[in-house]
Write a structure and sequence with these properties.
Layout: E1 4-8, H1 10-17, E2 25-29, H2 33-38, E3 42-43, E4 50-52, E5 59-62, E6 64-68, E7 76-80, H3 86-91, E8 101-102, E9 108-109, H4 114-120, E10 122-123, H5 135-146, E11 151-152, H6 154-165, H7 174-185, H8 191-200, H9 202-206, H10 208-211, H11 228-241, H12 246-254, H13 273-288, H14 292-309, H15 316-325, H16 332-347, H17 359-371, H18 375-384, H19 390-412
Parallel strand pairs: 2-5, 10-11
Antiparallel strand pairs: 1-2, 1-8, 3-4, 4-5, 6-7, 8-9
Cofactor: Ni(2+); Mg(2+)
Pfam families: HD, PolyA_pol, PolyA_pol_RNAbd
GO molecular function: CCA tRNA nucleotidyltransferase activity; hydrolase activity
């Protein structure tokens, strides 16, 4: 049997959708590792034979099948051999739209109806083997965020719910959860990922603090959407609309976690939810092992977003305290990202999508005023006056505060 190469997966799907093709993956049928080595391919795989094309460095895998032998996404044995057919290789893939191949002559190989589901805009599992890998739930949710006008086939939803009930989701390691969640947050409509995970019950297992937000009421005057969970989805999509970075999107995901812990007597106002949310944002960040910059911004936004919203009425002294708590002078980029997350929070409300958010430019102007203070000159003047140690720091603080007072006077004229 001679070796044949097929373009597979996302490259075929995206080409059929008329989307730009990012990565091109190939499957070699009728080959063994030695055949690829003899053709100059470079081996890179550890768990199963994967190679890189010697010129293009595109990934080529031997056609393979998988057999479930244990719990979780690692519990598989892989069989890669020349006798594995293309149809058998495609059968182990997650969704029909990802289980198509293109032959060298351009013809489409579509044994599981992927093209039909692309046209119908349906996300559907290829076979019941879908239940064997819990990562597929995360991947499907991520694809729902990318292709936001696609629906999930009812039979696929049933399979996902069964997987959750069977405890398969509990076997997911945090690093893999974050890998898929972070990619889903960066898609065009990240709210769909959360909706799909919630619908099948996975969100309650992966992030119960997030799941608890749904059904929690808020004051209609400030939140016409009322439901805290619905507000969260709107905020995430606002982040996508302004093409916010991952740090801001994760902070948005965590900003209202404290509302899920509001005592019944305090509903629907949620006093103190910002402080209650800080340990919850910290806990979710640690549980998913998110990068430090994501964790730090999430905690900062949870703690300070109410203060930022209220900052239009702040005195210069109160402004100064906010900027100092946020470490804005040393971390100006993070401070600006916090303000963007707060703006998305305000606009992530039904009917308020175009609402002005003057707090953001005003606080950036305040930061610029602090940055303009010549601290070297202030220090030199203080030293010349005989001041030492903490007294010099106080002189710098006062100079910065005076800069804010001057700015406030100018803004009020």
């Amino acid at each position: 049997m001679s070796m044949q190469m097929y373009l597979v997966g996302g490259a075929v799907r995206d080409a059929l959708l008329g989307l730009p093709v990012q990565d091109r993956d190939w499957v070699a049928v009728g080959a063994d590792p030695q055949a690829l080595l003899d053709a100059g391919y470079l081996p890179v795989g550890k768990d199963f034979p994967v190679f890189l094309h010697p010129q293009t460095h595109e990934e080529v895998a031997l056609a393979r099948t998988e057999r479930k032998v244990g719990a979780g996404y690692r519990g598989f044995t892989v069989h890669a051999a020349p006798d594995v057919t293309l149809e058998e290789d495609l059968a182990r893939r997650d969704l029909t739209i990802n289980a198509m191949a293109q032959a060298g002559d351009g013809s489409l190989v579509d044994p599981y109806g992927g093209q039909r589901d692309l046209q119908a805009k349906v996300l559907r599992h290829v076979s019941d083997a879908f239940v064997e890998d819990p990562v597929r739930i995360l991947r499907l949710a991520r694809f729902a965020a990318r292709f936001s006008d696609f629906t999930v086939a009812p039979e696929t939803v049933r399979l996902m719910r069964q997987m959750v009930e069977d405890g398969e989701v509990d076997a997911l390691v945090p690093e893999r959860v974050w890998q898929e969640m972070s990619r889903g947050l960066m898609e065009a409509r990240p709210s769909r990922m959360i909706e799909v995970l919630r619908d099948c019950g996975a969100l309650a297992r992966l992030a119960p603090a997030l799941d608890r937000l749904f059904g929690v009421p808020q004051p209609p005057a400030h939140h016409p959407e009322v439901d805290t969970g619905v507000h969260l989805l709107l905020v995430l999509d606002q982040c996508a609309k302004v093409q916010a970075p991952l740090t801001v999107r994760f902070a948005a995901l965590c900003h209202d976690l404290g509302k899920g812990e509001t005592p019944e007597a305090d509903l629907p106002r949620h006093p103190g939810h910002d402080q209650r949310g800080v340990p919850l944002a910290e806990a979710l960040s640690l549980h998913w092992k998110v990068p430090t910059d994501c964790r730090e911004l999430a905690v900062l936004v949870a703690r300070e977003h109410i203060h930022v919203h209220s900052s239009l009425t702040f005195t210069p002294d109160a402004q100064m305290r906010l900027l100092e708590r946020c470490d804005a002078l040393r971390r100006p980029e993070r401070f600006e990202q916090m303000l963007l997350a707060c703006e998305c929070d305000v606009r992530g409300r039904t009917g308020m999508e175009q609402r002005d958010y003057p707090q953001r430019p005003k606080l950036m102007e305040a930061l610029a005023a602090l940055q303009a203070v010549d601290t070297a000159a202030v220090s030199a003047q203080a030293i010349a006056a005989g001041r030492r140690g903490p007294d010099i720091g106080q002189a710098i603080h006062l100079a910065r505060l005076n800069a804010l007072r001057t700015l406030a006077t100018a803004q009020s004229m």
